[in-house]
């Protein structure tokens, strides 16, 4: 039974945290991006971070955030990882990693083979890579759009660092995405919502169950 680690991104309420914790998901994502329907104020995010149980890793998602913003976020709440989802350069990723002493996951948008070089480049400086669909030109959000990319581009890929598959995943397609790509980690936001920014506990449970191939890994 493969050990698949699931990240549910864009939680907004304490009930969302409880729903995610109940499934055995590995990570919960807190979005700090004002244009997103999942955006949280620092105080809202702090409350969620403080009720998260041990074992559920808290990931702060930011987009081209400056030091002052990252200082405010990291000082306000306990976190386990920073997710950089903008156009942060490899140098900026290395700088953030050194400044905050937290693992950094860099998102890379993929639409075609040519985008995969960036996965390699960032794997030299980040702790993890989030391989996401490239957003359409002029999209308001750089992620969280419910769009997938051609999974065959990353099928059976191995990189220097652990990677996570994202983009348009749903309870209905995640098992096939894992089968095709051999991803060991998956991330979802809009695919487990009933409306933009509104998480659906039933879809969260169905997603994690499907990702774990109908059951959590058997512990030996
Ligand atoms: O979720 C958001 O609102 C968001 C905003 C800005 C950058 C990234 C965002 N979400 C990330 O994008 C992936 C894919 O989302 P989806 O499943 O296709 O809706 C998601 O897993 C988040 O990490």
Automatic annotation (TrEMBL):
CDD domains assigned to the protein according to its UniProt record, in alphabetical order: PRAI (cd00405)
Protein name, as recorded: N-(5'-phosphoribosyl)anthranilate isomerase
Keyword Isomerase carried by entry: yes
One BP term from GO: L-tryptophan biosynthetic process
Primary enzyme class: isomerase
Protein family membership: Belongs to the TrpF family.
Reactions performed catalytically: N-(5-phospho-beta-D-ribosyl)anthranilate = 1-(2-carboxyphenylamino)-1-deoxy-D-ribulose 5-phosphate
Pfam families assigned: PRAI
Pathway the protein acts in: Amino-acid biosynthesis; L-tryptophan biosynthesis; L-tryptophan from chorismate: step 3/5
GO molecular function: phosphoribosylanthranilate isomerase activity
Species this chain originates from: Tabrizicola oligotrophica
EC nos: 5.3.1.24
Keyword Isomerase applies: yes
